[in-house]
Specification:
By secondary structure, this protein is α/β, with parallel strands linked by helices. It has nine helices and five strands. Strands 2-1-3-4-5 form a five-stranded parallel β-sheet, with helices on both faces. Helix 2 packs antiparallel against helix 3. The longest helix has 16 residues. It is globular and about 60 Å long. The model has no long low-confidence stretch (mean pLDDT 97).
Length: 239
């Protein structure tokens, strides 16, 4: 029986070309940090180390703790100077990155429709971002953070995609069985394959498809938001 739908954010509810998004996002961060001694090369090396640390994190510490530990081991910077700059960035300039993202009104319409049908809706977005950046990206998609039962950020979880333990932890927090859920995402490896290893059935949204393993997507229910809505309706009728 379908009880809950888990949504990815970037490239799913929020249309984007991930490469363009990251280029604009990182470029703005570098410009903010140059005055305290960063070069583009140093920043990117530290950022890469931090992201890698979050990706391989085993849940023994939060993503935030893993990120800053690896980041500072490369950058050798004073976070007491850097963190206030980042706070200002996320509260102001980060919103300008939305210009390189798309917008699909069907995303918010579907989320709200599912809630009206009595389904639980959880935002299973890869927790590589701080809470404020996740909340802002939710709003860029035409939604509000409170539209979701909960959402994951690097402050509050110790696993990242494509680790199946990320999904197991989301299910544990929601007190849900994998068989009662549908994972909706645009990334074959991170959403379909990793979710599948945790027992989740999936729907592959193809509007901003990422298929790094070059897998045959015919093995997954897939399509646009219209196909997704029809698929969910079918699952509800089968219950």
């Amino acid at each position: 029986m379908l009880k809950a739908v888990l949504f990815d954010l970037d490239g799913t509810l929020l249309p984007m070309d991930q490469n363009i998004f990251m280029k604009d996002y990182f470029g703005r961060l570098i410009r903010r940090l140059t005055p305290i001694g960063y070069t583009p090369e140093l920043f990117l090396a530290a950022m890469k180390a931090g992201i890698t640390a979050m990706t391989v994190n085993d849940g023994s510490r939060t993503g935030e703790e893993a990120y800053w530990s690896a980041y500072t081991s490369v950058s050798h910077t004073d976070l007491s100077k850097e963190l206030p700059i980042l706070d200002v960035f996320y509260n102001t300039e980060f919103d300008e990155v939305s210009a390189v993202c798309g917008y699909n009104p069907k995303a918010a319409e579907l989320v709200r429709s599912l809630k009206q049908k009595g389904l639980r809706v959880i935002l299973a977005t890869n927790p590589l971002f701080p809470r404020i950046a996740t909340q802002k990206r939710i709003r860029w998609a035409g939604l509000q953070p409170e539209d979701f039962e909960f959402y994951t950020t690097f402050e509050d979880i110790g696993y990242c995609k494509p680790n199946p333990d990320y999904y197991r932890e989301v299910l544990r927090r929601a007190n849900l069985d994998a068989s009662d859920c549908l994972m909706v995402g645009n990334d074959v490896a991170e959403d379909m394959m990793a979710g599948g290893k945790a027992g989740l059935r999936g729907f592959l949204l193809t509007d901003c498809l990422i298929n790094t393993p070059n897998a045959d997507i015919e093995q997954y229910p897939h399509g646009s938001f219209d196909e997704l809505e029809a698929y969910i309706d079918t699952l509800l009728k089968e219950a």
